[in-house]
Amino acid sequence: MSDIRYLAPHTLDDAIAQYAAADGAARILAGGTDLLVQMRSGVLKPSTIVDVKKVPELMAVEETADGGFRIGAAVSGAALEEHAKFGKVWPGVLEGLNLIGSTQVQGRASMGGNLCNGSPAGDSVPALVAAGVVATIKGPNGTREMKVEDVPAGPGKTNLKPGEILVSFTFPARPKGSSDAYLRMIPRTEMDIAVVGVGVSLTLDAGTCTAARVGLGAVAPTVLLVADAAKALIGSKLDDAAIEAAAAACSAACNPIDDKRGTIEYRTKVAGVLLKRATAIAAERAGRA
Amino acid sequence: MAKIHVSTTINGEPTEFLCDAGDSMLDALRDTLGLTGSKEGCGTGDCGACSVTLDGRLVCSCLMLAAEADGHKVETIEGMASDHLHPLQQKFLESAALQCGICTPGMLIAAKSLLERNPDPTETEVRFWLAGNLCRCTGYDKIVRAVMETAADMREAAR
């Protein structure tokens, strides 16, 4: 692997210039927990590696002026877990991120890497979609914003243009009575890849659901925003009929692969089951928020 | 391609070495620096035998490029004992919390990292923290008990 170039720029502008100047075989290095494995297995042979962990914008955890958060794309799961406030406001996002790999992997793995790796089963992605998070992307032609659900293009692919770097995630301010939850189904008890993952974010006002978003992972080529499931929840008191309708919408949205880890039929059914359970957890948390 | 010059601190010692861009930190530790305590089990971040800390944060050295160590502090198993063994090392010996020993350096580094953050972990917390450290001899029970007992001893010693 001696023909690889390693660059570790200190500013975002340098990172973009270096990444754009390298040919298409350049790769961004955040935590490296996917990249190094792919290099080792020979799946990827990058010409240039641009390590973005010295770029302040990618490593920052900030509260925004309107009461939301801006999280750098390369912030590790362990660093975000140690933040005093983030996990209280977005427990579902944090639990999704913290489900990725072991303690060692958490020391490095980031939400930006998880999203850009493009796996339909990335555990932080459904909760980010449910949270209504906006990704800030910067490239040689300037800065643009993209909803998280619009970033993946298919397994291993994103809608970032050549030379563009995912910089940060902006989380909206939370009204009182809001919370979120993420649940996944895996055949083992821990440290596995989701067969189905569901993120639910909602707001309750006197028991009535006034806002909701649902993200669904590992059951389609990309993580999905399930608008019909959210629609079934919004306006309800999260009664059985509303939850059943939302679960049915999740199952209907599934377009999964059929493999030894989960059949199409199983994944489709479990998507509905996890929606019900994640909604119950999010609602219980929202009641305390 | 020219080698990359890395200036880092390993177990408190300022250290310089040369590496290729694709070399992992584990490659540099074992092959360049002769620090063979960190083991390569899987090379893909699953087994934890190569565990080190980077600026105090537990990581797999196989999932880190050697070039990334530049300007940072790395702690390996070679730095764990001073003029006497670390209490975890002593307890692992006394309670036979190892069989073949390949996972042991990673287990010790990971356990030390846990006890620095949480001096009084529950058994569940120990098991979760060490979930990324695989022991193919399946000696987990003795390992977990040794960590719990060391934590208790260290709390007692700190009183």
Question: Your description of this structure?
Answer:
The complex is a heterodimer of chains A (289) and B (159). Chain A is an alpha+beta fold. In chain A, 35% of the residues lie in helices and 25% in strands. Chain A has twelve helices and 14 strands. Chain A has helices spanning 12-21, 35-41, 56-59, 77-81, 86-89, 91-98, 103-106, 111-116, 125-130, 227-233, 240-253, 264-288, and strands spanning 5-7, 27-29, 48-51, 61-63, 69-72, 134-139, 142-147, 152-154, 157-158, 165-171, 178-185, 196-205, 208-217, 224-225. The relative contact order of chain A is 0.12. Helices cover 35% and strands 16% of the residues of chain B. Chain B is globular and about 50 Å long. The relative contact order of chain B is 0.16. Chain A binds chain B through residues 1-6, 8, 29, 31-33, 36-37, 39-41, 49, 51, 53, 76, 78, 101-105, 107-108, 190-191, and chain B through 1, 4, 20-24, 43-46, 48, 51, 54, 57-60, 62-65, 67-68, 70, 110, 113-114, 128-133.
Kindly list the characteristics that best describe this protein.
heterodimer, A: alpha+beta, Enolase-like, domain 1, 2 domains, 5-stranded antiparallel β-sheet, 4-stranded antiparallel β-sheet, globular, B: 159 residues, alpha+beta, DNA polymerase, domain 1, 5-stranded mixed β-sheet, 5 helices
Largest sheet of chain B: 5 strands, mixed
Shape descriptor of chain A reads globular
Compute the separation of the termini of chain A in Å: 51 Å
| CATH class identity of the largest domain in chain B | Alpha Beta
What's the level 1 CATH class of the largest domain in chain A? Alpha Beta
CATH topology of the largest domain in chain B: Ubiquitin-like (UB roll)
User: Low-confidence parts of chain B, pLDDT < 50 over ≥5 residues?
Assistant: none
> What's the domain count of chain A?
2
Strand arrangement in the largest pleated sheet of chain B: 2-1-5-3-4
Order of helices and strands of chain B: EEHEEEHHHH
Strand order of the largest sheet of chain A: 4-5-10-6-7
Query: Could you spell the SSE succession of chain A in H and E letters?
Result: EHEHEHEEHHHHHHEEEEEEEEEHHH
Number of helices of chain A: 12
**Can you say what the CATH homologous superfamily of the largest domain in chain B is?**
Beta-grasp domain
Quaternary structure: heterodimer
